[in-house]
Structure formats: structure tokens, C-alpha cells
Amino acid sequence: MNTMSIRRAISSDATQLSQLAKLVAPFFTIAKDGRGAEQFFDSITVSAMEERLLSSQFEYWLICDEHDAMVGTIALRDNSHVYHFFILPEFHGRGYARRLWEHAKAHAIDTGNLGIFTVNSSLFAEKMYAKFGFLASAEQQETHGLRFIPMQLNLPAQATAHEVGQ
């Protein structure tokens, strides 16, 4: 596998994050052209991304390739909800998503998460989240031009016990 690096995203990454979100939007919008998902597109403008990057409610991480080029991002809201998780399509299936997820999950647990995570998974990403241990917590939903499946991961207590030294 190629060399990967992970770093915390900063406000100057907002433009790149906005471009990545727009690029992968057809994977989760109901209409491939984005019709009906205007609210989502408003939420991924450069200024909206900058606002989240500066908010203590969100934690964004970037994964980069061996040339330090951004390949993907994950964002947790409130240290427990996978808010954004995007990987450039040409890097799907190469382990970048797993490595990024494992990093974000470990950081969340180290900073107080008790092993409970939620996500509104696109239909495209459902199998990936299932491999990570997430289970559907409700039926498929459609709202504001997006189609998703609410999912949750409940890690066993022993998986998070390292935090308290057990």
C-alpha cells in the first residue's frame, strides 16, 4: 500500500474540502445533477467549510497520499457523529477510508467518546460502514435531495477500555 499521512484539517483547507464534497456529491444525492439538494450544496461552500473548521463542534482530518496530496477527509460532529467522510473516487478500495476511520475513531475514544458513533450513510457507502461494524438503525431516508441510511456503531466496552487503563 502507498504511504499515507493523516493530519488535522485547518481553515486554509476549506477550498479543497469544498471541492472534494462537490466532486463526490453524485454518490449520495438523489438526482445525479444535485437537483433538490441545494441545502446540502449550501452547507459545503468554502465559507461553510471554514466555519465548521473553526468550530469546536467539528473535528476534520485529512488523509494524504505519498505526495502529500489530499485523498480524503472525515469529520466528526460532537465527537460521535460522522458528519462528512469523502474519499476521491480514484482512491476507493485502497484502504484510505479504513485508515482515516481508524484514526478518527481512536482520537474520538481518546478524547471521551464511549464507543458509540452514528452516521447517515449514503447507499454507496453502506457496505463500507458495515465492514467497520456499523448497523442500520432505521430504514432508508430521503430528505432535501439526499438518500441515506441512519447507522450506528456500538463498540464493546473492552474496545474502549484502554482509555481508562484496564
UniProtKB/TrEMBL annotation:
Q: Which GO terms of the molecular function aspect are on file?
A: acyltransferase activity, transferring groups other than amino-acyl groups
Report the residue ranges that make up the N-acetyltransferase domain in this protein: 4-156
SUPFAM superfamilies this protein is in? Answer: Acyl-CoA N-acyltransferases (Nat)
Q: Which domain of life is it from?
A: Bacteria
- Which Pfam families does the annotation name? Acetyltransf_10
Tell me which Gene3D superfamilies the record gives. 3.40.630.30
What does the record give as the organism's lineage?
A: Bacteria, Pseudomonadati, Pseudomonadota, Betaproteobacteria, Burkholderiales
Identification of the protein by name: GNAT family N-acetyltransferase
Q: InterPro entries of this UniProt entry?
A: Acyl_CoA_acyltransferase, GNAT_dom, N-acetyltrans/Recomb-assoc
